């Protein structure tokens, strides 16, 4: 096993109490919040993403790590100077209209947040017009659509079409995901990308940065 710092280890284990205690100690000893985030916590979440993709971590474990990361990020947020917390970009995410499943979407949302994106999670049952309004309002560069039902997959196409009709298509990368969705469906409806899990989704969004 790789040689992780105790902070990274408690993050991977999803041990919120231990993680927040260790982060506090590091801060008390003079560590910078930005360094902790960028050099310790985010690389830790990258490990979680890799283990998820390779099947070495179960969803429940990933959720625990993601929650622990969320708590640590909340703790560091007020201490981060503007320069240190430069956002990787804005991501709008939501489950499409007619679909109420949100566990996977929340996971993607958390992983992207951990990767430094500013994530605006619209929630579930989101109509095409709401996605369009949010992209416009937030000036987002990536939009993620989630669907878990075969019956709501056509709503993904309607959402992509609405984004095209709104004239915002050139401004955003559209990525899709959810158990019934795959790469060829993404291609068929004119999305930019598909990712099978939260780790891959975050990687995909990062690949659009440059
Ligand atoms: C939990 C669950 C529910 C819960 C949802 C609770 C919640 N808050 O989400 C409840 C009980 C409410 C529910 C309701 C229904 N459900 Co349901 N549900 C499930 C179940 C068991 C698990 C889904 C889940 O959370 N998986 C775990 C997460 C982590 O995985 P995930 O969602 O796939 O997400 C990952 C990836 O897909 C990807 N991803 C997800 N979103 C996105 C987005 C982007 C942008 C990207 C890049 C990636 C990405 O990353 C995620 C993390 O790795 C599935 C079965 C299954 N095995 O999928 C059925 C399932 C999806 N449900 C099903 C059905 C039929 C229903 C109902 C119609 C049942 C009914 N008769 O009322 C209703 C529909 C309600 C509605 N309108 O949406 C069927 C769908 C069948 C089909 N082919 O369409 C399934 C497959 C069960 C089955 N085998 O019959 N359900």
Short note summarizing the structure:
The longest helix has 22 residues, at 33-54. This protein has nine helices and five strands, in the order H-H-H-H-E-H-E-H-E-H-E-H-E-H.
Structure notes:
- With 210 residues, this protein is α/β, with parallel strands linked by helices.
- 54% of the residues lie in helices and 13% in strands.
- It has helices at 6-13, 16-28, 33-54, 59-76, 103-114, 128-138, 153-165, 183-188, 198-207, and strands at residues 90-96, 118-126, 142-146, 173-177, 193-194.
- A five-stranded parallel sheet has the order 2-1-3-4-5, with helices on both faces.
- The protein binds cobalamin.
- Cobalamin binds next to α5, β3, β4 and α9.
What topology emerges from the helices and strands here?
Elements: H1 6-13, H2 16-28, H3 33-54, H4 59-76, E1 90-96, H5 103-114, E2 118-126, H6 128-138, E3 142-146, H7 153-165, E4 173-177, H8 183-188, E5 193-194, H9 198-207
Parallel strand pairs: 1-2, 1-3, 3-4, 4-5
Helix pairs in contact: 1-2, 1-3, 1-4, 2-4, 3-4, 4-5, 5-9, 6-7
The protein binds cobalamin.
Cobalamin is lined by residues 59, 98-105, 107-108, 144-146, 148-151, 175-180, 195, 197-198, 201.
